[in-house]
Amino acid sequence: MLLHPTSLPSGRLGPEAYAWVDWLAAAGQTWWQMLPLSPPDKHGSPYKSDSAFAASPTLLADPDAPVGDNERRLFREKAADWIEDWIAFAGEAALDDQVRFDREWAALRRYAADRGVRLIGDVPIYVAPDSADERAHPELFKPGFVAGVPPDAFTADGQLWGNPVYDWPAARRQGYAWWIARLRRIFELFDLVRIDHFRAFTAYWAVPEDSPVASAGSWKRGPGAAPLVAARAALGSLPVIAEDLGVITPPVTAMRKSLGLPGMAVLQFGFTPSERHTQHVPAYHVENQVVYTGTHDNDTIRGWYDGLPAASLALVEEALTSYGISEPDPEWAMIRLAHASPARLAVVQLQDVLGLGNEGRMNQPGTAGGWGWKLDSLPGLDLAERLRAATAAAGRTA
After folding, report:
1. Is pLDDT at 153 greater than 80 in this prediction?
2. Per the residue annotation, which of 16, 134, 243, 299 is the catalytic one?
3. Torsional sign, CA 329, 356, 346, 30
4. What is the pLDDT of residues 40-70, one digit of tens each?
5. pLDDT by residue (tens digit) across 269-324?
6. Does residue 113 lie within any of the structural domains?
7. Nearest 5°: phi and psi at 120?
8. What letter would DSSP give residue 231?
């Protein structure tokens, strides 16, 4: 299940987060995926954070909990490769917030593990402009350019993200130490992590910093697998999902396969009449893959389905028929289709279990605002039982 903690009614790691874990266990679900836990920007996006390492203090269930000197000392030792940079950026009180977060997070993670629920995190490929990371390591970033993507299914002019892009030769000269530290931190928190915009390791879209649109950019060569190979040498195995969406070329696929990492398939991208041979088409799903009904950047299934043209609807019906799926609700039909995929892991957004339309969308790519869908209350056990039944029918329960 995909649900960011900020979408819980309280938006915090308190009783509702524990109740959500209980709901997942009752529903037969074994993975909870979320978005980055780092401090969000003013629009609520955690993909443009002031830190690639720190957790957002707004997630704390008890932001005033006392912190002891020994806890501070131990945390400074454990997080020596990033915490001083964050304190310099956010102030001395930021240390206590990170100690509190690690304390609360460890308790929630233990609770989830005891109920058979593991956690999936998310690593944005870039950091925010003027972030703690850019201030502390300006030599790792390339002046004159910002990040984005070319025109795509979401936007006619591309997406102008505005993040600083990496000076990869400089990172190589440092042995990719910053990337190793970043992955070490995320592996401390999660059982599995998704690296967002994975294709940028092969080639990234660099936009002149004074351009008003992303379409003025161009592809620049990335470092390839080298940062991840260095991380594997330093940290051991890489429990990583490669977010291989967007313009995916053979070198991107070859790099992912060379590392043995699963890619992604998004069902909503699998029914475009002009694109019948992509990894999203159900007939082309493979085991070493994670299939999603939709991601945080997609519309809900209900919102998507209601806007489909006739040709795409015909392809949806063809796929459902081929798998013997008959459901009156399109969102549940697509949930069952995701579960029927040969992909090793199937991920469903809670909004789709709830049958929400456009009002449940988490994000609209290419726009500055619009982040922050939130539950009014946790779903009931009737939906947990329905999801467990669908999961069991596909042979996916633990």
Report:
1. no
2. 243
3. negative
4. 998 899 999 999 999 999 999 999 999 999 9
5. 999 999 999 999 999 999 999 999 999 999 999 999 999 999 999 999 999 999 99
6. yes
7. -115, 125
8. H
Active site residue 102: no
The answer to whether the beta carbons of residues 281 and 270 sit under 8 Å apart is yes
Q: What is the pTM of this model?
A: 0.95
Q: Which residue is catalytic, options 196, 244, 331, 352?
A: 196
- Among the listed ranges 69-83, 96-110, 155-169, 191-205, which one has the minimum average pLDDT value? 155-169
Residue 369: what pLDDT?
64
Q: Please report which helix (H) or strand (E) contains residue 249, including its range.
A: none
User: Model confidence at 371, in pLDDT bands (50, 70, 90)?
Assistant: confident
CA dihedral 39, 230, 241, 398 (to 10 degrees): -100
358, part of any domain = yes
CA–CA separation, 180 and 183 (whole Å): 5
CA gap 250, 230 in Å, rounded: 22
Q: Which of 81, 152, 191, 297 is catalytic?
A: 297
Is 398 inside a domain boundary?
Answer: no
User: Which structural domain, as residue segments, surrounds residue 293?
Assistant: 5-393
| Tally of domains in the chain | 1
Give the H or E element holding residue 160: strand 159-166
Give the CA-trace dihedral at 240, 245, 249, 255, to 10 degrees.
Answer: 0
pLDDT digits (tens, 9 = 90+) for 240-254: 999 999 889 999 999
Angle in degrees, 0-180, between the axes of helices 83-90 and 69-78, rounded to the nearest 10 = 120
Collapsed DSSP state (helix, strand, coil) of residue 218: strand
Q: DSSP letters along 57-104, please? A: GGG-S-TT----HHHHHHHHHHTTTTHHHHHHHH-THHHHHHHHHHHH
From CA 154, how far away is CA 27, in angstroms rounded?
Answer: 33
Question: Average pLDDT for residues 201-211, to the nearest whole number?
Answer: 96
- The CATH number assigned to the domain holding 62 equals 3.20.20.80
196 is catalytic: yes
Q: Which residues of 243-258 are buried (b: 16+ CB within 10 A; e: fewer)?
A: bbbbebeeebbebbee
**Per-residue model confidence (pLDDT) at position 368:** 65
Active-site residue, 22 included: no
Helices (H), 210-270: 226-235, 250-259
Which pLDDT score is estimated for 222?
A: 97
Answer whether residue 353 is part of any domain: yes
